[in-house]
Every structure is written in structure tokens, then in C-alpha cells.
């Protein structure tokens, strides 16, 4: 065991205690300096002793990889799918920096492991305001690993967030997950049109439903129509995008959630095209979406091989009559939910004469 270093008398500089110019006040200041030096050395030796004592504990003998996995399990998680999309901002992983800071402050060993573990610095949450120091350190310590970014902002212009926000946007090529829960004008989200995020796997955009759809002057052209070959989850609530098939045609899409979209809603054909180009699609959920009907004599029939859940709620009746019969999954083990409330106009009665094909599609 490493022996503790001795604290020789010369460190205390006791010779300066002789009467010197300045009298008693000078001696007092000298004693204060000696006291501070002694206390500093004392604290240093105590910390060294505690560090050596901790090194003998079982948890400090765990492999670093296992300890990092434990840290990841206790830190606030970045939820996937609907749990993140429609959760209030308070449930986004905005406490991640504080929780990580508490782990760092436990001991020197944990601090060293965390600072040397890029995977622990890939979550960058921003609630109401950015934490410039954390954003800077996360971008540096994550060492160019993919980032999981979550914004939860009130009714402010994102352009006022300053240098840290601009720096984070310049790293958009590293974004793996992006969740935005925003209470403000949709035009403040137009910064998304100027970014490039080719590695994006999950994109969830959920403005405040009270102010969202009504202030949209046009659909967002997210990432300037750039192809998103790795996109697995797309969730939009209260906002519409420009439906570019080339952007979603990577074949990786597994979950599509659309909610509360009144203006600039996609058409039935566009939804069918997305389903057709997504062989891994597992979940399709359309809720209160003003789907646009098509006048084509024959709409394409799609047979999504991986679909397991189709949820269609409060859609225009004419759109439902076009959409439902043309989704024909090859598997019979599909949770197919079609539900229209009384408040929805033109809600079709699938049990009425003339709708046998629609009812057959639902009961298939």
C-alpha cells in the first residue's frame, strides 16, 4: 500500500513566525497563511485515505463497462415513441445533466469513469433554456458519438438562445434522436429546414396543440427534404411536414404517428405510399388527421409484411372508406383499430350496406 507522504516542517514555513516588520498584524497574517496551507494539505491527505479505502469496496472492483451500464440504467432515460412524443415537457430527460453531476460528485473514481465514458454524454436535453456549460462539455466529451437531443421550450424565439444552440445545431449530423416539445409559433421551427441530419433514427415533433396547427402557414420542409435512410420513428402532433417520399424511402421506418393535423395534412395516397415503401413498418397510428381524399379511380393496395398495429381514430369518413380496404396485411395477427367519435362528421357506418369490403378489411 502506498505510504502517505510526510508533511515536513519546511512546508509550514515556521521560520516566518519571527517578529517582522509590521508587528502583530503581520504575524497574524503569517499564521493565517500557515493555517490555510496546513488545512489544504490535511484535506488532501484525508481525501487520499478515503480514496484508498473506497478502492477496497466491491463496487470499485467492478469492470468499468459494467459500471457504465449501471450508470446508464439509473440516469433519466430518453423514451421512445409515444411516451416521449405526447409527454409533458417535465417528463423529457431534462434532469439528465443534474443527475449526471450528482454521480460525478460521489467520488474521484466515479468522476474519472464518467468523464472518460463518451456514451454517458450523448443525451443533450434543453428545457426552457440551454445550459451552455453542459452543452459544450457534452459535445466535447461525447467524442462525436451519435446524440439524443430533446428540446422543451416555451413561447420564445429559438434564435434568441445564443451560441450554445447554434453549436448544437452545427452538430446535427450527429443527431440520432430528436424530440421537440414546443409551445410557440411554428415559424420558429423553420431552423429545421436548414439542418442536415442523415443519421436521424427517431424524430418526434409536438408543438402545443392549442397554438400549433392554427398558426401553420405551410408545411415544414424538414432537413430541406434530405433523405433520412435510418429513420425508424416519425411522430408529428399538431404540425405537418412536406411529404417527400424520397425522404422516407430508406426502408427503415417502423413507427408512424400522426396526431391532431388539420391543415396541410397528407393525402390517402401519400399514406399508402409511405406504408408501401416501409417493409419494416410495425405501427401506423393516425389520430384526428384531416386526411385528403384522392380522386384516383384505383388506389394502390398495400400489404405491409411487418405491420402489427393499425390505429385510425377520428378521421374523415371519406378518407377512411378509401384507406381501410387498401391496407391488407398478410398476417392475421394484426391489432386493427378504427374508431370515430360522434363529433366527427361523415363517420361511416361500416355495418351499413355498401361497406362490406371495408368491414371485411377490418375483421380480416
Task: Give an account of the 3D structure.
- The chain has 12 helices and 9 strands.
- By secondary structure, it is an alpha/beta fold.
- It has a 9-stranded parallel β-sheet.
- Helix 7 (132-141) runs parallel beside helix 8 (163-170).
- The protein is elongated, with a radius of gyration of 30 Å.
List the helices and strands in order: HHHHHHEHEHEEEHEHEEHEH
What is the CA-CA span between the terminal residues?
Answer: 73 Å
Largest sheet: 9 strands, parallel
Radius of gyration: 30 Å
**Given the C-alpha coordinates, what overall shape results?**
elongated
User: Ranges with pLDDT <50 over ≥5 residues?
Assistant: 342-359
What helical percentage do the residues reach?
Answer: 25-40%
Q: What is the mean predicted local confidence, pLDDT? A: 78
Q: Count of DSSP helices?
A: 12
Give a count of the beta strands, DSSP E runs of length 2 or more: 9
Q: Which strands sit side by side, in order, in the main sheet?
A: 1-2-3-4-5-6-7-8-9
Report strand %.
Answer: 15-25%
Q: Provide the structure class.
A: alpha/beta
Quick tags:
single chain, 364 residues, alpha/beta, 9-stranded parallel β-sheet, 12 helices, 9 strands, 32% helix
Helices and strands in order, then pairings?
Elements: H1 9-12, H2 23-54, H3 64-74, H4 81-85, H5 96-104, H6 108-115, E1 123-127, H7 132-141, E2 147-153, H8 163-170, E3 175-182, E4 202-207, E5 233-237, H9 245-248, E6 255-261, H10 268-276, E7 283-289, E8 309-313, H11 317-323, E9 335-339, H12 356-363
Parallel strand pairs: 1-2, 2-3, 3-4, 4-5, 5-6, 6-7, 7-8, 8-9
Helix pairs in contact: 7-8
